[in-house]
Amino acid sequence: MTESPLATAQNLFAQALEALRGVAHAGSTAERVSVPRLCETVARQLDQVTVATVAGLDRDGVFAERGYKSPTQALSDLVGWERFEAHRRTTAAEQVVSRVGLDGSPLPARLPATAEVFAAGRTGLRHVEVIARLLGSKAAVRLSPQQWIDAEAQLAGWAGDYTPTELHKWGKALIDLLDQDGEAPDNRPPVLVNELLLTRLPDGGGKLKGRFDDAAMFEAIAAVIDAHAKPLTADDDRSAGERQAEALADVCGYVLDHGDVPECGGRRPHVNVLIGLEDLENRARAACLDFGGPVAPESLRMLCCDAAVVPIVMNGKGQPLDVGRITRTVPDGLRRAVAARDRGCAHPGCDRPMSWVEIHHIREWEFGGETKLANLVALCRVHHRQTHSTEWIVRIRDGLPEFIPPRWLDSEQRPRRQALVQLAAAQ
User: Fold this and answer.
1) Helix residue ranges per DSSP H, 306-357
2) Nearest-5° Cα angle at 224, 218 to 229
3) Both ends of the chain: CA-CA distance in Å?
4) What is the pLDDT, as a whole number, of residue 424?
5) Can you list the pairs that 301-310 forms with residues at least 24 positions away whose Cβ atoms lie under 8 Å?
6) Is the full-model pTM beyond 0.70?
């Protein structure tokens, strides 16, 4: 029986790879020095095949038929790429692959000069991403069509000589030079920027970064923090930054306890403290917070004095054993149990926190599914919709959520789980 073209390609690639390994281990010095360059050449050629394939699959609607709104998310699930890695390929597929018009006629790539050097292996995916970003900027859009074409050709010519960072630097200077008139004068009042970004750190805790152009808004925040950030005594040796950080936490804690706080993801927000059963028996020397990660024993003891803190006891496999409730409503307690187990969207690779998720019945309610922990899973809106409209299978195994991908994503349909601290500890 004749093997398929894909199987033939796999066999030939395996042979070539084995020969290359032999050179890497036992070749001459000159040959081994050439191996990294050859590997980069091969990697770029493989990227070309990947990009062309992605463009074709997207054009044929293969990803959309399987419930994906974007090829980026489909590639993340199919290959296991981080989202930015998948987006890099889809960007290249949109920019350097020839297209088909609505009438079926062939159209050139959006970046024809870049497509040429990419196909020749003289540039990589990061270069394509940089060129696409530069030529999609507001300054580039203001260029005349011929200026834009000339700039693209110039950037493509530079791509083989510069690193992506260097290319971006030179490319920005080129476009700024061509866009000498700059943006048209705007006599309207400037748009005020008021933003606050919260970022969780992988080892626990987090950082805040904000900007408030609205003077009244900033004054309100500054007045509250300043009132709580004064040195407690003459011997208070905390820095101004430390005092202000603790003041902000104090104010937020007070609002959680006494303020009229809107519901967050279907419930009033409170601080959940996840305590292992063994730690509880050892006088609770360790615990974990929903947003902040691991908490020090001193902070834990302070939190346990707060009636608005809900203690959730976990067993050795990271499963909730007992859920403390500050109201009688059962749905809130069940949600807390799901939150304690899933810590956010349970879909593998998703980092949406519990405040962004919805609770999904694994066996639908209308088909007899019960509202109990063993039949509930936390999913963000994207993965909730995906679960209902695609062939992904969700189940609870050993008390924890598990996802089985469609066969087209993984022919062996190997179960996947979210990488959580409590899962690692249970191994």
Assistant:
1) 330-342
2) 115
3) 45
4) 40
5) 303/271, 303/273, 304/273, 306/253, 306/257, 306/271, 307/257, 308/256, 308/257, 308/270, 308/271, 309/270, 309/271, 309/272, 309/273, 310/270, 310/271, 310/272, 310/273, 310/336
6) no
